[in-house]
Amino acid sequence: MTDNVVWQTHKIGKAERSRRNRQKPCVLWFTGLSGSGKSTISDALEVRLHEMGFLSYLLDGDNVRHGLNRDLGFSDADRVENIRRIAEVSKLFVDAGLIVLTAFISPFRADRDAARAIMGPGEFVEIHVDVPIEICESRDPKGLYRKARAGEIRNFTGIDSPYELPLAPELRVDTSRNAPEACVQQIIDYLSVHGYLVQG
């Protein structure tokens, strides 16, 4: 970035949008292995938030790779750039006053930490969808584990590319032990207790 690029401030900012929307904007960062239930839980959670009258937007890994990140592959370097872009987009949505849900494997701890670092205090809520790889592989909703085991997919997280467990996520949900509705309620309870959802 050159010295000629200067951040433009506006009269309406995050605080004004937050008051109007009756919510504390944040990013709910879902991380976990393929097949753990990130998309299922984040989708169900957005439905609940919508029904409750809160404003949100869901960024899903596959959907983003159809547009914004269509030029990226699955090498370690491309995964890092994928998450960097998502973090920056999430920051813009948070500035818009929204509750942002992101459903990405985001396998590297440093990338998740970098995403947290660009948000304001309390604006990054890491949610580890903590499911054993054996269960994720048995589900295999897109047939990706089968292809990875057959050598048809390279750099597949959990098979020939690592997944670094979160050390201290704000929440852990386990879709192998709990129904999606129970996981969603766990997250709603957290958001309510910590002041992200303002009623009335």
What summary fits the major beta sheet? 5 strands, parallel
What's the overall average pLDDT, rounded?
A: 89
CATH-wise, what's the superfamily?
A: P-loop containing nucleotide triphosphate hydrolases
User: What is the CA-CA span between the terminal residues?
Assistant: 43 Å
> Could you say which structural class the secondary elements and strand pairing correspond to?
alpha/beta
Strand order of the largest sheet: 2-3-1-4-5
Strand fraction: 5-15%
Number of individual domains: 1
Count of helical stretches: 8
- Based on the coordinates given, report the CATH architecture: 3-Layer(aba) Sandwich
CATH fold description: Rossmann fold
- H and E string: HEHEHHEHEHHEH
Helix content: 40-55%
Based on DSSP secondary structure assignment, what is the total number of beta strands? 5
What does the oligomeric state look like here?
A: single chain
Radius of gyration: 17 Å
Overall spatial form: globular
CATH class: Alpha Beta
State the main characteristics:
5 strands; five-stranded parallel β-sheet; 12% strand; 200 residues; single chain; alpha/beta; Rossmann fold; globular
If you had to describe this structure to a student in words, what would you say it looks like?
The chain is α/β, with parallel strands linked by helices and 200 residues long. The chain has a single domain, classed as Rossmann fold, CATH 3.40.50. It contains 8 helices and 5 strands, in the order αβαβααβαβααβα. A 5-stranded parallel β-sheet has the order 2-3-1-4-5, sandwiched between helices. The longest helix has 20 residues, at 76-95. The chain is globular and about 55 Å long. The mean pLDDT is 89.
